[in-house]
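I'd like us to work through together how a protein chain folds, taking it slowly. To get us started, please write out a protein record for me. Go ahead whenever you are ready, and we will take it from there:
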Amino acid sequence: MVSAAAPPPILGDPIDPPAKSVPPVAERLDRWAIGGIAYRAARRYSYANVGLLAAGTAYYLFLAMLSLLAFTYGVIAIVGADELATRLTDAISDALPTLVGSQGIDPDQLRATGQTVGVVGLTVLLWSSLGAVTGAAKSMHLIYGAPPDPRNLIRGRTRHLLVLLGVTPLLLVSFSSAALASTLVGPLLDAAGLHSGWIRGVLASGGLVLGYAVDVLVLWILLGNLGGIRPRRKPRLFAALSGAACALVVKQLLTVIVAWSLAKPQYGAFAAPLAVLLVLSLMSTVLYGAAALAGAISDQDVPLEQLQAGREGATPP
C-alpha cells in the first residue's frame, strides 16, 4: 500500500460550507502564463500555511545555529586553532551582526562549552541541530504534495546531516560575501595603489554578485533534495533564481532590521535574538516561497478544475 501525500478526511458530519468553485479571477489569470503560475504558487503557499512553517523553521534554525556554533568552536578549541576561531568570529559577525561578539554570545564561552562537553557532547549538539533540516524537509514535502519520507530515523537524519554540512559553509559565504570580497581583493588593490571610489563600488557589486550566485546554488540544492520530489530543471532553476533575488533583498535589509531591534529599549536583552529570529523567519519564507513557485511552474499546464478537485480531496496535486 502506497503512502498518500495527505490523510483522507475522517468520518463525520461536515460543519464547514462546501468548497467553492474556481474563482473567476483565477480563470482570468490563467489566460496568461505568468498569471496562472502566480495563482498556482499562491495556492500552494496558502495551502501549506507557509507563514506557520517559516515561524517553526526559524525556531529550529535558531537552536541549530547555537548548537552548530558550540560544535564548531568546540572542535576549534580541541585542535587548538585560535586564529581560525578569530576568523570564524569575524565571518559570523559579518553574516549576522550581534550574534557573536561584544554585543552577542562570547566566543570564549562557546569554546569553553565545546571543551567541557567533549567529543560525545559535540556529536549530540551536531545531531540536535538537524531539527532545522528535518523541519524544512517536512515542510517542503507538504508544499510539493509529496508523501512522508519513508526512510528510517538513522537514514533520514544521516541524509539531512549531509545536506546540513554541505549548505552551512555556503550560507556563511552568502551572508558575508561583501566582506569576503573586500578581504580577498582589497589587499591586492591597495598593493596596486588603486583607491578610487568606483573601484570600491565595483568590489562591492562583486560581493553582491557572489552572494547571489551562492544563494542560487543553496536554493538549487535544497529545492532538489528536501521536498521528496525533485522538480524538473526549468522550474527548479527559475525558482532558485527568483528566491535568491528575494534573499538578496533580505540580506540588504539585515543591517536595518538589526539596528531597528537594538533601538527598541523595551526589548532589552532580547533585541538581538529577536532580530536574528526575524531574519531567519524571512529566509525560511523565501525558501518555501521558492518551493511554491517551483511547484506552480511544474503544474502550470494542469487545469484549474483538477487543482480544485485535488484541494477538495485534501490532497494537493
Notes: Residues 50-79 form the longest helix (30 residues). The chain has a mean pLDDT of 76.
